Structures are given as structure tokens and as C-alpha cells.
Amino acid sequence: MPDQLTPDGLQVKTLPEIRAEMVAALKEIYGEDINVDQNTPDGQFVNIFAQAAIDTRELLQKAYSSFDVYQAQGRVLDQRVALGGVKRKGASFNFTVVEVEVDREVRLQGLDAQRGELTPSIPNLYTVKDDSGLEYYLLNSVTLGTPETVVASEEGEPEESLEDKLSRLKEERVQLNTKISDLEASKTELEAAEQTDEILAQLTANSELLVEDRAQLQALSTEIYELELAIQTLQEASETFEQWKARKKVAQLQYDKKVTEYTSQVNVVVNTPGWYQKSQEELESRETWTEEEKAQSPLEFQLPPPVEVPEILYTTPEEFRDEEIAGETEEETPPPQEVTTEHSLLFRAARIGRLGTLANTVTEAVTIIAGVVKVNNRTKSQIEGVDEETDEKLKARFSQSASLPAQGYIGSIEARIRALPKVDLARVYENSTDSDLSDGQSPHSIWVIVKGTPDSADDAALKGRRESITDILYRNRPAGTSMYSVEKVTVDGQEHRIRETDKIRMPNGKYFHAYWNRTVDQKLLIQLTVDYRDLYSDTNTSDTFPKENLNKLIQSFQGKDGGKRLEWGLGLNASPDDVHRFVGEKHPEYQVYDVQFFQDGAWSTKLIQPRKYVTLVFSRSGSVINGHLLTEEERIPENDPETEEDTDTTEEDTGEGEGE
Fold it and tell me: pLDDT at position 38, please?
């Protein structure tokens, strides 16, 4: 069988056929008596070249078969299923929280911007590993310390003392009181002014600032009170401790001087800083003391009888200092104890995929840093990774997607419009009843709403495509079904013209007019708390959430990080769960909770159902994150309304394709 590509497919020679052809060619050259057996040089020569020829044909056969989805493998399979709009589900990394214990200030290098790289190229990247040898990389760079560490400020100045901090907080309280007074005066002026939309918005913002500042003032006052109490307690404790040390020293020296002989061990326990003169008779008759006297006694002696103890008279430190005592030595200072602190840090596995890290298995540091005492993961994986979708599962999913085509004209129109270039999303709503719907859609009509900027029919034709929204509606809209659309809408206090219209010439020379609506963005205020450092603990550490990470989160919500922004539209209800899911996918190291939306003048966790033509988007100005009211530091470009001339009517068009 010759090598050939026919309508039946690719046909290639087999190994016996190739060997037979080579043997026949050698016999023509050297004669029929040439020996080409397996154990001869000529026979081995024939086998080597025959095997090389069949290997080439097998590779060609695989390349040809890879055009069939069900025979393709690996990345070639990805290319084939992409033609049907199917994409392989990728793998994800495993994340786990590791406790890092340090005894001094240390700086640990993390992945930072290379957190998504499989093989990061970062020098001194802090790495740990588990019992099986699997390595984990620190996700974000961090500086750790202990309570005894002198933390320097950005200018290199040491940490302020308690007295300096108290003075600073009192000054801040005065400034905050002044700010609250100004806000209350401004609120009074706004309430007296005409209640326009702008005034109401300012009044709302003013009220929110007042609530926030009053809460801050309450917290500041509490902190000042606790700080004053702590300073007073420290001063009293310091004075008491110095008195205790002096009197203990006096008692010990008096005891060593006057007690010369005794056979029993004396146990001394200091009870209170109050001191009294006790004679031998009182000591021997201790069983007659009351509980109150025992509590006041500075020293307690356990003396089993019979023991002869000379009379001991305890004097005050001042009297004893006047006496000359030989052999007085300074009290030895005990060696300082080592102070360590544990920090909960998030690590990413070096390998991608599902790993299933168990608790108390990540215990060895690969990167040796002076000051790091030990590492350990007390819990299992914080976020479990997933393996890449296998070829078999991808083929099965492709088969299901190909076997579920859209049925009916609604599904067909919607699917075709979504497939157009520059269309992000599209929905087709149908009213098959004999009356108007609550949103105004007329009877027996379809309402097409598109998010994006698709080409017109003429522009599509110039680009060589005979596919536009107008073409799709002309070919798929049933006869007698009108096209509903809205001319103008008011969103966030601004009027927008959202009706789009286009036309194409029909074969009879008349024009078919198509109508649809485009979406318009509406700002949504969100309030949430985000935690970064201690993901597995119930302790709220949102007050330590870095500002740069807060900016990253806001940029993700606005879509300024190159990804998809946080939005709801075209039939999607805004839910707090969507915010959790959005943050979890983009920033697995962050954890958000207490998500609320501002609606009907108050914060609420209820779902928000936007109007059909509205896309709810995150508004920076007015949202609250970690108790901070955000402002519009960066100007977000708004969708400018169209510059078309307003028509006299705002009623919906049915667009039945009348001729011109």
C-alpha cells in the first residue's frame, strides 16, 4: 500500500512493506544471492533504515489524527476544543498557613509580584518544606519582630515612649473634637438648604463622616484612659518592687547575722510590701494567728519543733542601712530569658495542583535565616489546589457542549449575538403575553440588551463579515414579533440614551430596522472588612491590613489590574457571596467578611436586583473598607452619553422593517 492522502484519510506503508522494498532494491544492485538475514551486516542495515522510515510515518499519522478532537492529546487537544468554544480547566496552587517563630527582627523575602510563576527567579526567596520534601514559598515579603524588638519608623526613629504616646493621643483628640464640631456645623447648614440630589448626597456623606469620627473619638478616649491607667500601674509597681528588693535584702542580712545555729530548713515567702516587727514568741505561737494577720505577715517561717531559734528583730531598711554589716554583696541578676514570637504567614506550594497538605508536616526551613527559631503548620491547607483537567474529562465536556445546541429562536439569537466581536454579554427577554410587563415591555415582543460595542451592519460588511446584530435579528426573529427598546433612562442622576438602531437592505429593496438597548453602569457602594495576615484564626487583624494591599483590592474591584472588574448586570443579582467569590479567585491570601450593600439609605446584606439595562459596578467614592470611608482619589472614566439628537418621542419602537 503506497503512502497517500485520500478522501478516506491518510494511508502509510507498514514496516514489512518498507523492509521488503529495501531488500528488493539491494538484490537488484548486488544480485539475488545477497544475504540480508537478521544476523548479517546487510540485514541489520536494512532493519535500521526501515525502522527510521516507519517512525517518521507514525509521527505523520499522529499529526494527522490530532485534527480529530477525540484522538488529540495535550496542548494540541486544547487547540482543537478551543474551536468549539471550550477551554481546559487549569490547575491552581495549594496555599497553607505556617507559623514562623522568631527571636529577633528578621526580613523574609516573598514571591510578591511573581506569586503566579511556577519557577520564580527571586534571590533569597524564603522557602520551607514538609516531611515529603515538597517546598513552599512565602507569598508576600514581610518584616517580623518580637515584643522586645525596637521597631524603627520609616525615618529610622525609635518607638515612642508611653508618655510621648499619651501626649500625642491627647493632641489628636483635640483635633478630632474640632473636626466633629465643623462637621456638625456643616450638617446644620445642609439641612437648612434646599434638598436637592447633590445636597442630599453631601448630607449623607457628612452623616457617615460624623458617625465614623465619633466612633474614632470614642476609641481614642478609651485608648487614652487605658494608657493613663497603664502608666500609673507601672509607676506604682516600680516603686513597690524597689521597696520589696530593699526590704528583702535587709531581712536576709539580719537573718544571716543573728541566726547562728539551727538544724531545720527555713522557708521564706514574701507576702506583702508591708513590714512589721515580730519577736520570737510571736513566731513560735503562729498557730494562734488569725487569717488576716497571716495575710499581713511579710515572712512565713515553717519551723518543726524543737528548734532553738534566737530572737530575730526585723527593722526598717533605713535603720539597717545605718548599721555596718561585713560581707555585704550585691544580689546576682538572673540571666535574661529568650523571648520569641510566632507569626502566621501564608505560603504557596512550589508545585501546582492538588497536594493535600496535612497539619504539622511543614516543619523544616530550607532558607536559613538568623533569628527564625522554628516553623510549623498547625492546620491543613488553607486553600486546596486543583489538578489540571485531564484529556479524558476535557473530551467528555467537549462532547456535552457540542451536543447541547440552542433550541428556539430566543436562545439562537442570544447565542449568536454573544459570539459577535466586541460583545461582552447579551440577553434576550421575551413577552409572550397579551399585556405589558411590569418593566414596560410590550406584548408579543423581544427585548435585546447588549453589553459592549458591536460593529454595525455596514462596518461588519467592510470587514468582510456578514454578521451583526441587525443581520441576526433579521434572520432569526419570527414574523409578527416586535422589538422593544427604551429611548432614555436616568441612572445616578444622569440621563443616558441607551437605544441603538441599525438597518440593512432586504432582497426586495426595502430596509429592515433593528432596535436594541445597550447597558449603562450604575455605581454600587460596598462595605466590607478584609483580613490579610491571620487567615485561619478568628482574630480580626484588619487593622494591620497593609495600605498597598488595600489599593490592590480596590484596583481589582475596578478592573484596573488587567482582569475583569466586579460587576452585576443583565439579570444577575448582586449578592455578598459574589464579593467573597471574586476576592477568593483574584486574591486567595485575602479574606473578606461582613459584606454589605448601601440600598434604601442604609447598609444591608440583602440581594440587589438591578434593572435589566443596568450594570452595577463598584464605586470607590462612598464605599467603606475596614471602617475607612473611601474617596475618589482616582477619576474613573464614566460612559459618556451618546451625542445623538434627542427625538420627540420616548415610546418604544416595534421596528417591523418598513421599507424606505
Answer: 83
